[in-house]
Write a structure and sequence with these properties.
The protein contains three helices and 13 strands. The chain is mostly beta strands. It starts with 9 loop residues before the first helix and ends with a strand.
Length: 374
Protein backbone atom coordinates (compact mmCIF):
# COMPACT_ATOMS: atom_id res chain seq x y z
CA UNK A 1 0.00 0.00 0.00
CA UNK A 2 1.41 3.37 -0.98
CA UNK A 3 1.16 6.08 1.65
CA UNK A 4 0.99 9.68 0.49
CA UNK A 5 2.94 11.91 2.81
CA UNK A 6 0.97 14.97 3.82
CA UNK A 7 1.88 17.88 6.02
CA UNK A 8 -1.64 19.14 6.68
CA UNK A 9 -3.23 18.06 9.94
CA UNK A 10 -4.79 14.64 9.23
CA UNK A 11 -6.97 14.73 12.34
CA UNK A 12 -8.84 17.69 10.86
CA UNK A 13 -8.90 16.36 7.33
CA UNK A 14 -10.22 12.95 8.36
CA UNK A 15 -12.95 14.63 10.38
CA UNK A 16 -14.04 16.59 7.33
CA UNK A 17 -13.28 19.99 8.89
CA UNK A 18 -12.62 22.95 6.65
CA UNK A 19 -9.80 25.41 7.18
CA UNK A 20 -10.92 28.84 8.37
CA UNK A 21 -10.73 31.61 5.81
CA UNK A 22 -7.98 34.20 5.98
CA UNK A 23 -8.85 36.96 8.41
CA UNK A 24 -7.76 40.56 8.78
CA UNK A 25 -4.11 41.52 8.85
CA UNK A 26 -1.78 42.35 11.71
CA UNK A 27 -2.31 46.04 11.03
CA UNK A 28 -5.31 45.78 13.39
CA UNK A 29 -4.06 47.20 16.68
CA UNK A 30 -4.62 44.91 19.68
CA UNK A 31 -5.67 46.69 22.85
CA UNK A 32 -6.70 45.29 26.20
CA UNK A 33 -9.87 47.32 26.44
CA UNK A 34 -13.54 46.90 25.64
CA UNK A 35 -13.03 47.85 21.99
CA UNK A 36 -11.39 44.51 21.28
CA UNK A 37 -13.43 42.39 23.64
CA UNK A 38 -10.21 41.04 25.15
CA UNK A 39 -9.05 41.88 28.65
CA UNK A 40 -5.49 41.32 29.86
CA UNK A 41 -5.44 38.12 31.88
CA UNK A 42 -8.91 36.98 30.74
CA UNK A 43 -7.75 34.31 28.31
CA UNK A 44 -9.88 31.72 26.53
CA UNK A 45 -6.71 29.85 25.61
CA UNK A 46 -6.57 26.39 27.21
CA UNK A 47 -3.98 26.44 29.95
CA UNK A 48 -5.48 23.76 32.19
CA UNK A 49 -6.64 20.23 31.51
CA UNK A 50 -10.26 19.54 30.66
CA UNK A 51 -12.21 17.81 33.41
CA UNK A 52 -12.62 14.97 32.80
CA UNK A 53 -10.82 13.97 29.61
CA UNK A 54 -7.42 13.05 28.20
CA UNK A 55 -4.32 14.77 29.58
CA UNK A 56 -3.30 17.99 27.85
CA UNK A 57 -0.33 20.36 28.31
CA UNK A 58 -0.92 23.14 30.80
CA UNK A 59 0.86 25.73 28.65
CA UNK A 60 -1.16 28.79 27.58
CA UNK A 61 -1.48 30.05 24.03
CA UNK A 62 -3.27 27.25 22.17
CA UNK A 63 -6.01 29.45 20.73
CA UNK A 64 -9.74 28.81 20.70
CA UNK A 65 -9.57 25.86 18.29
CA UNK A 66 -7.51 23.61 20.54
CA UNK A 67 -8.57 19.95 20.83
CA UNK A 68 -6.99 17.15 22.88
CA UNK A 69 -5.74 14.09 21.03
CA UNK A 70 -8.72 11.83 20.28
CA UNK A 71 -9.38 8.86 22.52
CA UNK A 72 -11.45 5.75 21.78
CA UNK A 73 -11.95 2.16 22.94
CA UNK A 74 -8.50 0.78 23.71
CA UNK A 75 -6.94 4.06 22.57
CA UNK A 76 -6.05 6.12 25.62
CA UNK A 77 -3.90 9.24 25.41
CA UNK A 78 -0.63 9.23 27.35
CA UNK A 79 1.31 12.38 28.18
CA UNK A 80 4.95 12.68 29.26
CA UNK A 81 6.47 15.82 30.79
CA UNK A 82 10.11 16.81 30.25
CA UNK A 83 12.13 19.11 32.48
CA UNK A 84 15.42 20.97 32.14
CA UNK A 85 18.03 20.50 34.85
CA UNK A 86 17.55 24.04 36.17
CA UNK A 87 13.77 23.86 36.67
CA UNK A 88 12.23 20.67 37.99
CA UNK A 89 8.90 22.33 38.85
CA UNK A 90 7.79 23.57 35.44
CA UNK A 91 7.89 21.31 32.36
CA UNK A 92 9.95 22.55 29.42
CA UNK A 93 7.98 20.35 27.02
CA UNK A 94 5.40 17.59 26.80
CA UNK A 95 4.73 14.68 24.48
CA UNK A 96 1.21 13.34 24.05
CA UNK A 97 0.66 10.14 22.08
CA UNK A 98 -2.20 7.85 21.10
CA UNK A 99 -2.98 5.10 18.60
CA UNK A 100 -4.73 6.56 15.54
CA UNK A 101 -5.71 5.45 12.04
CA UNK A 102 -4.57 7.64 9.14
CA UNK A 103 -5.51 6.79 5.55
CA UNK A 104 -6.44 3.29 6.73
CA UNK A 105 -3.05 2.67 8.38
CA UNK A 106 -2.63 2.14 12.12
CA UNK A 107 -0.19 4.70 13.49
CA UNK A 108 1.10 6.32 16.65
CA UNK A 109 0.18 10.01 16.73
CA UNK A 110 2.69 11.95 18.84
CA UNK A 111 2.57 15.66 19.64
CA UNK A 112 5.49 17.62 21.13
CA UNK A 113 4.56 20.95 22.75
CA UNK A 114 7.23 23.37 24.01
CA UNK A 115 6.78 25.81 26.89
CA UNK A 116 6.12 29.30 25.43
CA UNK A 117 8.50 30.71 28.04
CA UNK A 118 11.28 29.05 26.01
CA UNK A 119 10.04 29.92 22.49
CA UNK A 120 6.72 30.88 20.96
CA UNK A 121 4.93 31.89 17.77
CA UNK A 122 4.90 35.59 18.66
CA UNK A 123 7.19 37.80 16.61
CA UNK A 124 7.69 41.13 14.90
CA UNK A 125 6.05 44.13 16.55
CA UNK A 126 3.85 41.79 18.61
CA UNK A 127 6.53 39.57 20.15
CA UNK A 128 5.67 38.59 23.73
CA UNK A 129 8.35 38.14 26.40
CA UNK A 130 11.32 38.60 24.06
CA UNK A 131 12.55 41.91 25.51
CA UNK A 132 15.14 40.22 27.72
CA UNK A 133 16.36 37.78 25.07
CA UNK A 134 19.83 38.05 23.59
CA UNK A 135 18.52 39.84 20.50
CA UNK A 136 15.90 41.85 22.33
CA UNK A 137 13.14 40.71 20.00
CA UNK A 138 11.89 37.93 17.72
CA UNK A 139 11.19 37.75 13.99
CA UNK A 140 9.47 35.26 11.69
CA UNK A 141 12.73 34.73 9.77
CA UNK A 142 14.36 33.46 12.96
CA UNK A 143 11.70 30.74 13.20
CA UNK A 144 12.32 30.06 9.51
CA UNK A 145 16.01 29.52 10.19
CA UNK A 146 17.21 26.30 11.82
CA UNK A 147 14.33 25.48 14.17
CA UNK A 148 13.47 21.80 14.33
CA UNK A 149 12.59 19.04 16.79
CA UNK A 150 14.14 15.59 17.05
CA UNK A 151 11.69 12.86 18.12
CA UNK A 152 12.61 9.35 19.24
CA UNK A 153 10.29 6.34 19.21
CA UNK A 154 10.98 3.07 21.03
CA UNK A 155 9.36 -0.34 20.78
CA UNK A 156 7.95 -2.16 23.81
CA UNK A 157 11.32 -3.92 24.34
CA UNK A 158 13.03 -0.54 24.77
CA UNK A 159 14.78 -0.65 21.38
CA UNK A 160 14.88 2.51 19.27
CA UNK A 161 12.64 2.15 16.23
CA UNK A 162 12.58 5.70 14.82
CA UNK A 163 14.75 8.80 15.18
CA UNK A 164 13.91 11.79 13.01
CA UNK A 165 13.92 15.59 12.95
CA UNK A 166 10.95 17.68 11.77
CA UNK A 167 11.53 21.00 9.99
CA UNK A 168 9.54 23.69 11.82
CA UNK A 169 8.81 26.18 9.03
CA UNK A 170 10.33 27.20 5.68
CA UNK A 171 8.71 29.90 3.55
CA UNK A 172 5.38 29.40 5.28
CA UNK A 173 5.26 25.60 5.28
CA UNK A 174 6.93 22.76 7.15
CA UNK A 175 9.04 20.38 5.07
CA UNK A 176 8.47 17.49 7.45
CA UNK A 177 11.32 14.99 7.63
CA UNK A 178 12.46 15.19 4.02
CA UNK A 179 13.96 18.66 3.45
CA UNK A 180 15.57 21.72 5.10
CA UNK A 181 15.99 20.86 8.78
CA UNK A 182 14.05 17.59 8.55
CA UNK A 183 15.80 14.22 8.30
CA UNK A 184 15.41 10.57 9.28
CA UNK A 185 18.31 9.18 11.30
CA UNK A 186 16.88 5.78 12.26
CA UNK A 187 14.10 3.75 10.66
CA UNK A 188 12.42 4.07 7.28
CA UNK A 189 11.20 7.44 6.01
CA UNK A 190 8.08 5.77 4.60
CA UNK A 191 7.00 4.90 8.16
CA UNK A 192 6.59 8.61 8.91
CA UNK A 193 3.10 8.88 7.44
CA UNK A 194 2.61 12.59 8.12
CA UNK A 195 3.97 15.53 10.09
CA UNK A 196 2.84 19.01 10.99
CA UNK A 197 3.84 21.99 13.12
CA UNK A 198 1.76 24.67 14.80
CA UNK A 199 3.11 27.48 12.61
CA UNK A 200 2.37 25.41 9.50
CA UNK A 201 -1.16 24.95 10.83
CA UNK A 202 -1.49 28.68 11.47
CA UNK A 203 -0.55 29.56 7.91
CA UNK A 204 -1.77 26.63 5.81
CA UNK A 205 -4.70 25.01 7.60
CA UNK A 206 -6.09 28.07 9.38
CA UNK A 207 -5.24 30.46 6.55
CA UNK A 208 -3.60 33.19 8.65
CA UNK A 209 -1.12 34.13 5.94
CA UNK A 210 -1.43 37.86 6.65
CA UNK A 211 0.57 37.36 9.85
CA UNK A 212 3.97 36.38 8.44
CA UNK A 213 5.65 39.66 9.37
CA UNK A 214 3.92 40.34 12.68
CA UNK A 215 2.07 37.67 14.63
CA UNK A 216 -1.43 38.48 15.94
CA UNK A 217 -1.11 40.89 18.85
CA UNK A 218 -1.79 39.44 22.28
CA UNK A 219 -0.92 39.89 25.95
CA UNK A 220 1.33 37.93 28.32
CA UNK A 221 -1.46 35.38 28.86
CA UNK A 222 -1.67 34.78 25.09
CA UNK A 223 -5.30 35.83 25.00
CA UNK A 224 -6.72 34.94 21.56
CA UNK A 225 -6.88 37.88 19.15
CA UNK A 226 -10.34 38.28 17.53
CA UNK A 227 -8.59 38.75 14.18
CA UNK A 228 -7.03 35.26 14.47
CA UNK A 229 -8.74 33.43 17.36
CA UNK A 230 -7.35 29.99 16.47
CA UNK A 231 -3.74 31.17 16.21
CA UNK A 232 -1.53 28.79 18.20
CA UNK A 233 1.19 30.78 19.98
CA UNK A 234 2.86 27.57 21.20
CA UNK A 235 5.59 25.81 19.22
CA UNK A 236 4.20 22.35 18.47
CA UNK A 237 5.49 19.44 16.38
CA UNK A 238 3.35 16.45 15.37
CA UNK A 239 4.10 13.13 13.70
CA UNK A 240 2.16 10.04 12.70
CA UNK A 241 4.37 6.91 12.70
CA UNK A 242 3.14 3.62 11.24
CA UNK A 243 2.82 0.83 13.81
CA UNK A 244 4.80 -1.29 11.33
CA UNK A 245 7.91 0.59 12.49
CA UNK A 246 7.81 -1.19 15.85
CA UNK A 247 7.77 -4.76 14.52
CA UNK A 248 6.62 -7.71 16.60
CA UNK A 249 7.44 -5.98 19.90
CA UNK A 250 4.88 -3.23 19.30
CA UNK A 251 5.04 0.44 20.23
CA UNK A 252 6.59 1.35 23.57
CA UNK A 253 7.01 5.11 24.05
CA UNK A 254 8.00 8.42 22.46
CA UNK A 255 10.86 10.56 23.71
CA UNK A 256 12.75 13.81 23.25
CA UNK A 257 16.25 14.45 24.56
CA UNK A 258 16.44 18.20 24.00
CA UNK A 259 14.42 21.19 22.86
CA UNK A 260 15.89 23.76 20.52
CA UNK A 261 15.09 27.21 19.20
CA UNK A 262 17.36 29.72 17.53
CA UNK A 263 16.95 32.06 19.24
CA UNK A 264 15.25 31.12 22.49
CA UNK A 265 13.98 33.56 25.08
CA UNK A 266 16.55 32.53 27.69
CA UNK A 267 20.30 32.14 27.81
CA UNK A 268 20.44 28.77 26.05
CA UNK A 269 19.07 27.93 22.62
CA UNK A 270 19.15 24.22 23.46
CA UNK A 271 18.02 22.62 26.72
CA UNK A 272 18.69 18.98 27.60
CA UNK A 273 15.51 17.53 29.10
CA UNK A 274 14.58 14.44 31.10
CA UNK A 275 11.14 12.92 31.77
CA UNK A 276 9.54 13.32 35.19
CA UNK A 277 5.94 13.20 36.47
CA UNK A 278 3.72 16.00 35.18
CA UNK A 279 2.41 18.62 37.62
CA UNK A 280 -0.63 17.21 39.47
CA UNK A 281 -2.82 20.08 38.30
CA UNK A 282 -2.22 19.02 34.71
CA UNK A 283 -3.67 15.56 35.25
CA UNK A 284 -7.34 15.10 34.28
CA UNK A 285 -9.63 14.57 37.23
CA UNK A 286 -12.76 12.44 37.32
CA UNK A 287 -15.88 14.12 38.64
CA UNK A 288 -16.83 12.35 41.84
CA UNK A 289 -19.52 13.34 44.33
CA UNK A 290 -18.96 10.35 46.61
CA UNK A 291 -17.04 11.40 49.77
CA UNK A 292 -15.73 7.83 50.05
CA UNK A 293 -14.16 8.06 46.59
CA UNK A 294 -15.14 6.67 43.22
CA UNK A 295 -14.11 3.77 41.03
CA UNK A 296 -13.10 4.72 37.47
CA UNK A 297 -16.01 4.08 35.17
CA UNK A 298 -19.36 5.60 34.33
CA UNK A 299 -22.19 6.98 36.44
CA UNK A 300 -23.70 3.78 37.74
CA UNK A 301 -26.44 3.69 35.13
CA UNK A 302 -27.10 -0.02 35.54
CA UNK A 303 -27.28 -1.01 31.88
CA UNK A 304 -24.07 -2.98 32.20
CA UNK A 305 -22.18 -1.51 29.25
CA UNK A 306 -19.59 0.24 31.34
CA UNK A 307 -20.00 3.70 29.86
CA UNK A 308 -22.03 5.30 32.61
CA UNK A 309 -24.86 6.30 30.24
CA UNK A 310 -28.21 4.52 30.09
CA UNK A 311 -28.77 3.09 26.62
CA UNK A 312 -31.70 0.83 27.56
CA UNK A 313 -34.96 2.24 26.10
CA UNK A 314 -36.84 0.64 29.01
CA UNK A 315 -34.71 2.50 31.56
CA UNK A 316 -31.87 1.43 33.82
CA UNK A 317 -31.39 0.80 37.51
CA UNK A 318 -29.19 3.52 38.98
CA UNK A 319 -25.88 2.37 40.38
CA UNK A 320 -24.61 3.35 43.76
CA UNK A 321 -21.59 5.44 42.89
CA UNK A 322 -22.69 8.78 41.49
CA UNK A 323 -20.17 10.36 39.16
CA UNK A 324 -17.41 7.96 38.17
CA UNK A 325 -18.55 5.06 40.39
CA UNK A 326 -20.82 2.98 38.21
CA UNK A 327 -20.96 1.68 34.69
CA UNK A 328 -18.80 -1.24 35.70
CA UNK A 329 -19.97 -3.39 32.82
CA UNK A 330 -20.92 -6.50 34.81
CA UNK A 331 -24.60 -5.85 34.32
CA UNK A 332 -25.81 -5.74 37.94
CA UNK A 333 -26.26 -1.99 38.10
CA UNK A 334 -24.41 -1.51 41.37
CA UNK A 335 -21.40 0.23 39.90
CA UNK A 336 -18.96 -2.35 41.32
CA UNK A 337 -17.22 -4.86 39.10
CA UNK A 338 -17.89 -8.39 40.34
CA UNK A 339 -16.56 -10.16 37.25
CA UNK A 340 -13.32 -12.00 38.17
CA UNK A 341 -12.13 -11.55 34.58
CA UNK A 342 -12.50 -7.77 34.86
CA UNK A 343 -14.97 -5.33 33.35
CA UNK A 344 -14.79 -2.77 30.50
CA UNK A 345 -12.91 0.37 31.43
CA UNK A 346 -10.87 -1.27 34.19
CA UNK A 347 -7.30 0.09 34.35
CA UNK A 348 -4.53 -2.48 34.09
CA UNK A 349 -2.50 -3.57 37.11
CA UNK A 350 0.00 -1.09 38.50
CA UNK A 351 3.62 -1.44 37.39
CA UNK A 352 7.04 0.18 37.53
CA UNK A 353 8.55 -1.60 34.52
CA UNK A 354 7.36 -3.78 31.65
CA UNK A 355 8.53 -6.97 33.40
CA UNK A 356 5.72 -6.40 35.92
CA UNK A 357 3.14 -6.88 33.16
CA UNK A 358 1.82 -9.80 31.15
CA UNK A 359 3.35 -11.13 27.92
CA UNK A 360 1.20 -8.90 25.68
CA UNK A 361 1.44 -5.76 27.83
CA UNK A 362 3.90 -2.98 28.62
CA UNK A 363 4.25 -0.56 31.54
CA UNK A 364 2.86 2.78 30.35
CA UNK A 365 3.78 6.29 31.50
CA UNK A 366 0.74 6.21 33.81
CA UNK A 367 2.25 3.33 35.79
CA UNK A 368 -0.28 0.72 34.65
CA UNK A 369 0.02 -2.26 32.33
CA UNK A 370 -1.53 -1.67 28.91
CA UNK A 371 -1.87 -3.87 25.79
CA UNK A 372 1.04 -3.64 23.38
CA UNK A 373 0.05 -1.90 20.13
CA UNK A 374 0.88 -4.14 17.17
Amino acid sequence: MKITRIVLLPALLLAGCESPETTSSSSDVFDTDTDTGVVDGDSDSPGTPRDPGPPVPGFPGAGTGFEPLPEGPGRQVSMLCFFGKDDKDNPAATIEYVLETIEGVESVHARLTIDPKFVDNSYGENAVGWEESKKGGHTYKELDGSDHAQLLFYDADGEMAMDFAIDYITDGVSNGVSEKDGEVNEGEEEWVLATSTSLHENFVTRGYTDFMEDSPATDTDYTPNPAAPDWDYRVVYEAWVAVEAFGAAGFGTADVEYIHASPAKGEDNTIIVDPDPCPPEWEPEDECDNPDGCTPGGDGDGDGDGDGDCDDPDGCTPGDGGDGDGGDGDGDGDGDCDDPDGCPGDPGPECTETSDCGPAEYCSSRGVCEPIIR
